[in-house]
Amino acid sequence: MQDSLCEVAYHEDMGHSYYRIGLRTGWRGFVPGQFGMLEVPRADGILLRRPFSFARQQGDVTEIFYKKVGKGTEALSLVGVGRSLRLLGPLGQGFRETSSAGEGVGVAGGYGIAPFVQMAKQLKAKGRRLQLFYGARSKQDLFYIQEFKELEVKLYISTEDGSEGLRGRVTDLLDKTFANSPPERIWSCGPMGLLKAVQNWSQRKKTSCELSVEETMGCGTGVCLGCVVQDVQGHYRRACIEGPVFPGELLNLTD
């Protein structure tokens, strides 16, 4: 973990309020699922850094994929190339690789797609492939499709409105594909409803899953206790330190 002043190498508007920003961190890499606390320009009501999951590492540049949803991300969206921002990271626990040599299986919803770009890249470098089940509201909310094709990802897509792939829930695709023989482990990142559905599916299939939770964070280092989640024993776990990726059987989720 380091707190660095990072130059903005690129900042792209991807349409429909989605952006990706590349920061010259100088890192060699990170574990998919880890995140960083990024400084955003000061504006009315903006004091704290914002947590962002990392999408991929390209040379010395670390990419963050985000959606403009409030004052913080709106201020960030206006940052130009060449400007420098402070970034604390990599933080938290990422996804663990499966012990088998076969394909890895990921389930993503919305901008929970981010960690699977680096995941696919790392698996391909080891001669393995990612099977990715990707759900979104509509075709316009699907991203990194070309990158996944280049990384030879086996992609299963669903949209709520049917504008791309299967119309319906991404877990329906998961259920159909693994009706008889579930994978060793599933990785999932997305909204709480999706995580709960993946958790339930894994329990029914008697397989394991790892879930990346999205929680509000003030510090990212375990001090503020603003990101706690409850486990099955009623204890509270800090998402920034013990997560954001947790074993699915550990968490007591509400959707």
Brief summary of the model shown:
The protein is an alpha/beta fold. The chain contains five helices and 15 strands. The chain has helices at 71-77, 115-125, 145-150, 170-177, 192-205, and strands at residues 2-15, 18-24, 35-38, 50-58, 61-67, 84-91, 104-109, 130-136, 154-159, 166-167, 185-189, 208-212, 228-230, 236-238, 245-247.
Gap from first CA to last CA = 32 Å
The major β-sheet equals: 7 strands, mixed
Kindly provide the name of the CATH class of the domain at 2-91: Mainly Beta
Low-confidence regions:
none
Taken from the alpha-carbon principal axes, the silhouette is globular
Kindly state the number of beta strands.
Answer: 15
What this model shows, in words?
- With 255 residues, the chain is an alpha/beta fold.
- The chain has a domain at 2-91: Translation factors (Elongation Factor Tu (Ef-tu), domain 3), CATH 2.40.30.
- It is 18% helix and 35% strand.
- It has helices at residues 71-77, 115-125, 145-150, 170-177, 192-205; strands at 2-15, 18-24, 35-38, 50-58, 61-67, 84-91, 104-109, 130-136, 154-159, 166-167, 185-189, 208-212, 228-230, 236-238, 245-247.
- The strands form three sheets. The protein has a seven-stranded mixed beta sheet, sandwiched between helices.
- β7 (104-109), α2 (115-125) and β8 form a beta-alpha-beta unit.
